[in-house]
Amino acid sequence: MVNIGSVDRAARFVLGAVLLASPFLLTEMFAPLGAWRFLVAAVGLVLLGTAIFRICPAYMLFGIRTCATGRA
After folding, report:
1. What letter does residue 54 receive in the DSSP assignment?
2. Which residues of the chain have pLDDT under 50?
3. DSSP 3-state percent helix, strand, coil across the chain (nearest 5)
């Protein structure tokens, strides 16, 4: 059921943390976006969630796996 590999997971975790925190820490930069800054935070939250659970619904839809399959 897992379809996210280690490198993909680390990248999602880092990018998710940055996107989640940025609108709240860099308010001057995100102020022109208005309420759209919460969308940036939501995308970060989704990336963190997929990194934690190692399951990406979009990957399932397209049949993509970035982790080892365990086949010899």
Report:
1. T
2. 72
3. 75, 0, 25
- Pinpoint the alpha helices (H) of 26-71: 27-30, 37-53, 57-62
Give the whole-angstrom CA distance, residue 62 versus residue 35. 31
Cα–Cα dist 40/66, whole Å: 25
pTM of the entire structure? 0.87
What is the CA angle 30-56-45, rounded to 5?
25
3-state secondary structure of 66: coil
Q: Where does residue 69 rank: exposed (0-12), middle (13-18), buried (19+ CB within 10 A)?
A: exposed
